[in-house]
Amino acid sequence: MANQKIGAVLVIGGGVAGIQASLDLADSGFKVYLADQAPSIGGVMAQLDKTFPTNDCSMCILSPKLVAAGRHPNITVLTNVEVAGLNGEAGSFEVKLRKLSRYIIEEKCNGCGICAQKCPIEAIDTFNEGLSNRSAIYVEYPQAVPLKYKIDREKCIGCGTCYEVCKAKAITYDQKDSEATLKVGSIILAPGFEVFDAKLKSEYGYGRYPNVVTSIEFERILSASGPYGGLVLRPSDGEIPKKIAFIQCVGSRDYQLGNNYCSAACCMYGMKEAVIAKEHTPPPLNAKIFFMDMRSYGKEFDAYYKRAQGEWGIQFVRSRVAGITEDPKTQNLFVHYVENETPKTEEFEMVVLSVGMQPPKNAEKLAESLGIKLNAYKFCETQAFSPTETSKPGVFVCGAFSGPKDIPESVAQASAAAAKAMEVIASERGTEVAVKEYPPERDVSLEEPRIGVFVCHCGINIGGVVNVPEVVEYARKLPNVVFAEANVYTCSEDTQKLIKEKIMENKLNRVIVASCTPRTHEPLFKETVQEAGLNPYLFEMTNIRDQCSWVHMHDAKEATEKAKDLVRSIVAKAKLLAPLKKPLINVTPVALVIGGGVSGITASLSLADQGFEVHLVEKEPELGGQLRNINYLLEKDSDPKEKLSSLVEAVTKNDKIRVYKNAEVVDVYGFVGNFKSKIKQKNGEEKEVEHGVVIVATGASEYKPSEYLYGKDPRVVTQHELEEKLASGTFEAKTVVMIQCVGARNDERPNCARICCGQAIKNALKIKETRSETEIYVLYKDMRAYGFKEDYYREAAIKGVIFVNYDDERKPQVKAENGKLLASFWEPVLNEQVEIEPDLVVLSAATVPNPDNKKLADMLKVPLTKDGFFLEAHMKLRPVDFATEGVFLCGMAHSPKYIDESIAQACATAARATTILSKKTLEMEGIVANVSEDLCSGCRICEYLCPYGAVEMKDKEGKTVAHVLEALCKGCGACGTACPTKAIIMGHFTTEEILAQVKAALVEVKI
Amino acid sequence: MSEKNGFEPKIIGFLCNWCSYAGADLAGVSRIQYPPNIRIIRVMCSGRIDPAFVLEAFKDGADGVLVAGCHLPSDCHYISGNFKALRRITLLKKALAEFGIEPERLRLEWISASEGDKFATVVRDMTEQIKKLGPNPFKEMEVKSQ
């Protein structure tokens, strides 16, 4: 008999991927142990300054997740922990962990930091990449979760100072490493990556020339909390550089080193660092990027590349830099490179090496102790159709450990791995978890308003422009404000603790945070005040960053005045705030999946395997979507035809999944947990289904070109058509010309279509496999063979496929003359125009969004990008969520992507959906309309106006009055505005509150 | 407000939470600079904006009022709140003239979450336009009556 399954999961690695996986699992009824080797969670993302392509502040968007993981009742964070061994099988593992000593009793340490202030010993600050020092007793960074100190025993001299000053008695020099055993049902690996050691590229002088820094060091230099406070300074002399070179592919695409693969994220982060450097440096800063191929292949990435070139004035040079030398007097650097076949040398004041990603140092040890396979580069081995599965059942992987990738892909994979981990132990959901309980709510109805104001410096994001102390001083004098103070980061875990203490100490009954946008941070602060016994609606926020310091960067005085006005205005509102109750609603544990391609099928199967019912709607007569056009894979690890038929069979046989073919969703109404939709079937019959979530997986399709004689000459085909010819054995050609970026990266569709480079390489290799004598020319702008696809790019080049670069000024031309097909293009190495006579011209056509997207977007009330793909809630950290609760997105409906990426996103939507479907009831937003029955005249205007049917009329002592159905009310307030007798009170946005806010914004208070 | 004696208008911006407030956030994230004359009031939907809020703002001394919501026809998070705003603000503009306030002081704009640049442009334009119009005549009337 198999062992009893266990409803707990071990997540190894506490970077953004590990955190996301943990949150999804914990919110779906599973106990999570989140283990990291480091003394705190956060990983590399915590070290980054900004993130591409939105230039969002990395810490600002990560911090709420760090805090959420740190305070989640179902997540136990284990730090300084290594995996020592594994026993058991999927569903019931026993993991042996070794806990390395901190020399601190974690339960006692409150993170006050006095020990670090008094510690006489300086050590290298590894979080700042060695660019500054810290004490021997330390936390990695100020927002660290958990905020527990650690002693660096290699540096510690044992003087006993910290022991003396620690009031909590948390210091213990003789703490020993300990071992522990955990019982879990599944395991997720998210140990991340190491950055490449740039010293190994000795020709670039890293380690010898102080002004050559790595990109991760440069992130710290750019960071407000970094070694130079966010100023870009040269390490050699502290001068502000006026000319910086960025060198791409350092430790990537490097055959001499054996790091053949592409590190996938460096092109974008290199560009971002150049852009942010310009922002942090007095103009003019000259920033030049040396690159081989600009691989900005992600969603909206090419738009960023364009802005970098145009608006931000970054220069780009297509060249592999040969070497760097230093002028010993000035410590300036000479970059030696070849451009247009001519050797050149250019002087810079600073050089940034865009270092690649490597597997974590302990990858082999980890693989051995867990019994999983690694690939040739020592990353975790996965397959195209199972991107989050390791070779050992029950052990899953996400993030950069399975191959270099950026943050949104790591996050999507993390949710995907969570879904796979849940599938194993779905039967044990809810068996190991605790329910979060808040202290009883304090009744503040008889108290005078006592307002507390917390003003955030946000590093230097706010404090660098707005005079924060002055705003705090001002706030203190405002009516009803009894407490005000400044915080470096109001969102950090220690500040949450502080806010709670201040609420208690000062008997605060209204709390205001003046910082960033409530759109991202309000939930965190609401929870904090709730933990201090206040109703969460007694909290308000005002935005002095996104809407003040960041948009008035050159006018500190006015920005400060504006910040004061905003604080005064929100204080006036806060005075009137009233507590609200959150209604509870039931959840229909059923999913509606729109689109029956590989994404829709995968999402449906994952949900059905967890016991949820699914309605899967496909417009076409057959399931499979674009996968039906795929005959073989670049990776060759599986047969897509076989996979397709097994997926379709699994869906068809699964009694939890109801498949509707030739069908369309024609109406969706309701809200999270309680949707009702109409599915129109082939026979015209409409069926109404009830469901709790919606997953959009409507896919995309190959662009039908109007360029290069396509449709006019049968010898011009698309990559899909070529693949069909190759698969059916009808391919005939001695010379083939492939043209990349057809219908993409142009004015109409400015973004990259991502998959066409891989398609071209795949088909070129397939041709070479059977007809090695065929001449193949691939005309490209940038070969975007990112990640391990670089191996196949190289293989194609070795097998004689000729790759020729072109740019927009000199596009290839195709014409038909006297029955001959002619292709001409500029050959940059020969430096001349070449004309050849191919038998076949293959267009790598863009992937275009599904034309039905607009209709569906309107129905679901979700946005589209300018290109017509669906737009997720947040490009970095919410890649498969919509802003509308209960609606999710995956696959090519999101943007063009490869099969493994679509599958990862599809599983991710399943995990995200499970956080809703696994709950019997959901707690709803408390901002709803309320009717004052005495004032209501029963005119029915509100009933007519409400788009959700949330108002019904009822009889009250012989009088007809309006009544609001709280679960249906979305809190828009339209009824309150229209009510002629002002009988409708809009919670949290009452007329009195808004008018007070307006008045205070305009009129100075006498203080 | 660089000019010492120059008139710097005060503008109240009523922004819906889902599109326009997010658009204003994006202007910040993209570091698009605009004049510091606007004070933003967040509401859940442009359909929540009562004409009385606008009139009160003018009464309290606002030189301009911006009402911004999700694009027509179908961006509104609450299905049709933007249409409600359209009707109310259009009528209100007509009524403003009756009160002796130039209708140009009140602007209704559709700004999406991806239009940070549009938000900044609207604020720039509006600030310029109201500078030309001069201070809110209500304020002068009040001064005279005192």
| CATH first level of the largest domain in chain A | Alpha Beta
Q: What integer value in Å does the Rg of chain B equal?
A: 15 Å
Low-confidence stretches of chain B: none
Q: In order across it, which strands form the biggest sheet of chain B?
A: 2-1-3-4
The domain tally of chain A reads: 7
Shape of chain A: globular
Counted by DSSP, the helix tally of chain A is 24
Please give the CATH architecture of the largest domain in chain A: 3-Layer(bba) Sandwich
Give the total of beta strands of chain B. Answer: 4
Largest sheet of chain A: 5 strands, parallel
| Series of secondary-structure elements of chain B, N-terminal to C-terminal | EHEHEHEHH
Q: Give the number of helices of chain B.
A: 5
* Low-pLDDT runs of chain A: none
Short structural summary:
Chain A is α/β, with parallel strands linked by helices. Helix content of chain A is 26%, strand content 25%.
Features:
heterodimer; A: 1007 residues; alpha/beta; FAD/NAD(P)-binding domain; Alpha-Beta Plaits; 7 domains; 25% strand; B: 146 residues; 4-stranded parallel beta sheet; 5 helices; 4 strands; globular
Please, could you describe this protein's structure?
The complex is a heterodimer of chains A (1007) and B (146). Chain A is an alpha/beta fold and 1007 residues long. Chain A has 7 domains: 1-100 and 177-193 and 360-436, FAD/NAD(P)-binding domain (3-Layer(bba) Sandwich); 101-176, 2-Layer Sandwich (Alpha-Beta Plaits), CATH 3.30.70; 196-358, FAD/NAD(P)-binding domain; 451-574, Rossmann fold; 586-699 and 850-917, FAD/NAD(P)-binding domain, CATH 3.50.50.60; 702-848, FAD/NAD(P)-binding domain (3-Layer(bba) Sandwich), CATH 3.50.50.60; 929-986, Alpha-Beta Plaits (2-Layer Sandwich), CATH 3.30.70. In chain A, strand 43 and strand 44 (832-836) form a beta hairpin. Chain B has a 4-stranded parallel β-sheet with strand order 2-1-3-4, with helices on both faces. Chain B is 45% helix and 16% strand. Chain B is an alpha/beta fold and 146 residues long. Chain B is globular, with a radius of gyration of 15 Å. At the A-B interface, helix 13, helix 14, helix 23 and helix 24 of A face helix 1, strand 2, helix 2 and helix 3 of B.
